[in-house]
Amino acid sequence: LRRPAGDAMAYPASPLRTPMSQSTNEFPLINEWRTAKKTRKAERGPTEKKTDTNKRKRQKPLPPDAIAVRPAEGETTGEILKAIKHDVEIDKIGALVSTITESRSGEIVIRLNAKDTKRTVLEDELRNKLGSRAGVRGLTKLEDIEIQDLYSVTTATEVETCIRHALGAHADDQTIQVKSLRQSYMGTQRATVRMKSTDAHKLEKAGRVKIGWVYARARIKIRAIKCYRCLGYGHRKQHCTGVDRTETCCLCTSKGHMASTCKSPPKCAACEDINEKTDHYPGSGKCIAYQRAMVPNKTNPRANKRRGPNTDCVAQTHTSNG
């Protein structure tokens, strides 16, 4: 309210309108609260911004399939490309080609779109049209998936048949193969099955697959990165600074034969480099080098999924050299 001009009447000052700085005696509780708040803030220090550590990163899409064409001796890349363009009717086949590039080894790499379903048709057409002028092979990224909780009488053929049925694949699909079937706990078995990356991720997303009577658990097998130059773990051959063992057997480190025909006692080259016992197969349960390389994957089991599929496994279908 405004005081009328010339009014000599004195209005008492309201304590609620008195500034806090001038009310030390009238409002002691408020001053104590302000002092305590400043003290707690000073003890706590500057506040940190909250970060959502559980927020998942967007995974990169899986690499699509591809077809590699290697010109025969006496043929050039340009001549083969002209023959493909002139003889192969891509619109009639319906294949979705993304890019056509040339590799360092001189092969023509035809990469297909991720949604393409005509790779095998295009591969057969290229093989028929080119004949002996070039070798054609299909490239498919593979993954190893682990099937658990199988009962003791389950066979490898039964596992392959049930997985093909679950994925809707053809009965003669050879890209699904059981690599190992071994005993597990409480009378059960555990199978390692190699298949295309797209199929492996479908099974892992489903979580379980019916094998006989059992809905068995399915998960992609986490692998340690392996170098095929020094036969060690934790790096690839592009960054290898170790001993060159490209001409030795990866099971016994001897020269003169390959792992497929090896009959010598096992010797682990990776454990030899770190001065550990070597009387075991590389990557087995006794391999200390493999266990050390797997430590980052055990602490962060999703690391391999973000990195993408296992690029060390590549399926080559129906190679034709003419």
UniProtKB/TrEMBL annotation:
It comes from Schizaphis graminum. Residues 42-54 have a biased composition (Basic and acidic residues). Residues 313-322 have a biased composition (Polar residues). SMART domains: ZnF_C2HC. GO terms for molecular function: nucleic acid binding; zinc ion binding. Residues 226-242, 248-264 form the CCHC-type domain. This is CCHC-type domain-containing protein. It comes from the Eukaryota. Residues 1-74, 298-322 are annotated as: Disordered.
